């Protein structure tokens, strides 16, 4: 039995942005359940974070068969919260899932084949306890599978009523352009591309993805805009207990070296001079680009979430501030590229 009643004012301050040339608006902040949403973490905290996100107008929850840990656990958890608390609001939710990154040793538990994508989608729908997802993604490019087969699977997902829209993630611009063309010809336009983008990862600026999104008419949902926490003040002095760099396979403590700290401290100072935190500056920075529909954030507490969504309360970044950010926001800092 749910004790949850959503906040009446959940849409009052929330900003929504149009995804490319589609008819779909997405919240400026989307929430992802990549890490710390498995059973190793407090159920009550995970539930509080999800419900707080919804109260803040974050109507888009990003998942994948891989998320947890372990694999599939984040979707099983989200399915429980959906059943208990959010089911009456399903029409107000954008639920995304992805398939194709390895989740087991079987050749059918990885890659972008028709078999792998559609079997994973069926499993995700069961885990989430919903008849359809709003966005279904090919999680990563798979050079060994013909693009036509991957596109055919995405189109089938829509035609079977299991997904409303389709997306791709981590694809290079040349293959993204090809996929966009194939999908358009099949009558299922590419809604979004999900790349990593942050002050420390400039690839979408350098490889033409931002321009491609504008030209092809798809939106960008950019993930890890805080570089997994490196673009916050949490690692300036030390690595705190419970931080991702202590317990995640995806963020090594070794990247928190003197070079990183100097750059993060300089960025932190730019933020402080604007009266905001480094996290807020970093989120405002990705959302300054009109091609970016949504910043896809994570959080391990309600306090982080509350803090981060205030990023848009500050004045736009000036040219001088952007230039200063470029000086210290060196591409590749702290990240595996
Ligand atoms: N398509 C893909 O291949 C792909 C890959 C990666 C991610 N994603 C998606 O993107 C989502 C977000 O990725 P991400 O979690 O790396 O995003 P992020 O926003 O860069 O990092 C979030 C993490 O930073 C820390 N943090 C957040 N706010 C903070 C604050 N104010 N002060 C201090 N620390 C703070 C928290 O970690 P701790 O408190 O635990 O340290 C939090 O979990 C994922 O959940 C997933 O949906 C997609």
From TrEMBL:
GO terms for biological process: methylglyoxal catabolic process. Keywords: NADP, Oxidoreductase. GO terms for molecular function: oxidoreductase activity. InterPro entries: K_chnl_volt-dep_bsu_KCNAB-rel, NAD(P)_OxRdtase_dom_sf, NADP_OxRdtase_dom. CDD domains: AKR_AKR14A1_2 (cd19089). Pfam families: Aldo_ket_red. The keyword NADP applies. Residues 30-328 form the NADP-dependent oxidoreductase domain. PANTHER family: HYPERKINETIC, ISOFORM M, L-GLYCERALDEHYDE 3-PHOSPHATE REDUCTASE. Belongs to the shaker potassium channel beta subunit family. This is Oxidoreductase, aldo/keto reductase. It comes from Amycolatopsis methanolica 239.
